[in-house]
Design a protein that fits this description.
By secondary structure, the chain is mainly α. The chain has 2 domains: 17-112, Winged helix-like DNA-binding domain superfamily/Winged helix DNA-binding domain (Arc Repressor Mutant, subunit A), CATH 1.10.10; 114-216, Dna Ligase, domain 1 (2-Layer Sandwich), CATH 3.30.1490.190. It has helices at residues 17-38, 45-56, 63-70, 79-91, 134-145, 161-175, 178-187, 192-195; strands spanning 96-100, 104-108, 117-120, 126-128, 155-158. The strands form 2 sheets. A 3-stranded mixed sheet has the order 4-3-5, with no helix packed on it. A two-stranded antiparallel sheet has the order 1-2. Helix 1 (17-38) packs across helix 2 (45-56), helix 3 (63-70) crosses helix 4 and helix 6 runs antiparallel to helix 7 (178-187). It is globular and about 60 Å long. Bound molecules: zinc ion (2 copies). One zinc ion is lined by residues 120, 122-123, 125, 160, 162-163. One zinc ion binds at residues 60, 108, 111, 115, 117, 128.
């Protein structure tokens, strides 16, 4: 089998990472459309736009963020339409829903299976993390507890590089003393509810068990 039979012209290695990223988004979008139409769901242009945002966003958007992203193209689309599409994807197991008391629900339409996340307690950014040995860990936990493990959720909390840089700049300004320092500190990312939030209890993990949702 020729590995790159459908890639004429420059070899794939020369493709920019943006090209690869765009192709991956298109592939994922095609998968989502195929899955929904197999189940007899109507694929409207609005729905394609919603699916494209979910397939393409690595930022784990909220339903509101998805809605805002498509409004310029489809100004009459309601938030309820976004939720309905998300519910259909959930019913098909094609989207991962992450529930947070602080930021509401966020969605990963790229990787619908459980995977670790790194979450910024400053700005709420959510990034996928690569962790090796998770399959082995799950196997051991199943063995030790006698549970049939169906899913898991693994969240790491901290400060993202952008928030760290902003805090460091604010600290430097603060160290110089005076009112300038106070002003810089006040201008930094400041979400008191998040700042002093205790680390999540180890046994407080919520499990994101996929459950079928009746589509209306
Ligand atoms: Zn941040
Ligand atoms: Zn993710």
């Amino acid at each position: 089998m020729k590995r790159f039979s459908h890639a004429p012209g420059p070899p794939p290695d020369s493709a920019t990472s943006q090209d690869r990223q765009e192709k991956a988004v298109e592939r994922r979008l095609d998968e989502l459309i195929a899955r929904l139409s197999e189940r007899g769901r109507r694929i409207t242009p609005q729905r394609v736009a919603i699916l494209r945002v979910l397939a393409g966003s690595e930022g784990h958007p909220s339903a509101e963020q998805v809605h805002r992203a498509i409004l310029p193209m489809f100004p009459t689309t309601s938030l309820a339409t976004v939720y309905k599409t998300i519910h259909l994807l959930k019913a098909e197991g094609e989207i991962l829903e992450l529930e947070f008391s602080e930021f509401g629900n966020r969605y990963d339409g790229n990787k619908p299976y459980p995977h670790p996340h790194v979450i910024c307690s400053g700005c709420g950014a959510i990034v996928d993390a690569e962790v090796s040995g998770l399959t082995e860990m799950t196997r051991r936990i199943a063995e030790e507890t006698g549970f049939a493990i169906t899913t898991h959720r693994l969240d790491f909390y901290g400060l993202c590089p952008k928030c760290r840089a902003e805090r460091a700049a604010a600290d430097r300004a603060g160290a110089r003393g005076g009112e300038a320092g106070d002003a810089a500190g006040a201008a930094g990312p400041d979400t008191p509810a998040m700042r002093n939030r205790p680390a999540p209890a180890e046994n407080g993990a919520t499990y994101d068990v996929p459950r079928p949702i009746a589509a209306k």
